[in-house]
């Protein structure tokens, strides 16, 4: 089974990286399943908002391929500035996460379950960027 990581890292079937990833098919399948749940699952966050947040997190991590992928699916909303600010805080300054940060999200109309979904989305995209970075390093080693 191939996943978005294979696509973004341009991992060719049968390559050394494909073989390494194939050692843990459960992780590959779980990564893809989580991707689908985050971006296609039920949520009070619109698809446009989810992809805009993902694009922002990818940009913060310097992942141009991921950012481009999400840019084509993202859109605007009135609450997007608050969502992006939260994403930046959790990605760059997680030690600044406070109950007040959660209250700011509730104040723009997110339900508690949407706050959880937003945090899961941010964590997932950060995980993907780190996985891609690690795979690129492995690709460069003999």
Characteristic terms for this protein:
142 residues; mainly alpha; 8 helices; 0% strand; elongated
Structure description:
It is elongated, with a radius of gyration of 16 Å. Helix 6 packs across helix 8. It is 71% helix and 0% strand. It has one domain: AhpD-like, CATH 1.20.1290.10. The mean pLDDT is 96. With 142 residues, the chain is mainly α.
Overall SS class: mainly alpha
User: Radius of gyration over alpha carbons?
Assistant: 16 Å
Count the beta strands.
0
Question: Which series of helices and strands comes N to C?
Answer: HHHHHHHH
Poorly predicted residue ranges: none
Measure the end-to-end span.
25 Å
Helix content: over 70%
Shape: elongated
Q: How much of the residues is beta strand, in percent?
A: under 5%
CATH architecture: Up-down Bundle
Q: Into how many domains do the coordinates divide? A: 1
CATH overall fold name: AhpD-like
Lay out the secondary structure.
Blueprint: H1 4-8, H2 16-22, H3 25-40, H4 47-60, H5 64-71, H6 80-92, H7 99-107, H8 112-140
Helix pairs in contact: 3-8, 4-5, 4-6, 4-8, 6-8
Brief write-up:
The protein is mainly alpha-helical and 142 residues long. The chain has helices at residues 4-8, 16-22, 25-40, 47-60, 64-71, 80-92, 99-107, 112-140.
């Amino acid at each position: 089974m191939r996943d978005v990581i294979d696509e973004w890292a341009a991992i060719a079937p049968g390559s050394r990286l494909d073989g390494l990833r194939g050692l843990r098919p459960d992780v590959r399948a779980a990564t893809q399943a989580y991707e689908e749940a985050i971006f296609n699952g039920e949520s009070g966050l619109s698809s446009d908002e989810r992809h805009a947040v993902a694009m922002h997190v990818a940009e913060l991590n310097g992942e141009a391929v991921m950012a481009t992928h999400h840019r084509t699916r993202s859109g605007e909303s009135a609450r997007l500035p608050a969502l992006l600010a939260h994403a930046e805080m959790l990605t760059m300054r997680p030690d600044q996460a406070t109950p007040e940060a959660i209250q700011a999200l509730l104040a723009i109309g997110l339900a508690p379950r949407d706050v959880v979904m937003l945090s899961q989305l941010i964590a997932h995209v950060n995980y993907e960027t780190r996985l891609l970075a690690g795979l690129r390093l492995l690709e460069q080693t003999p």
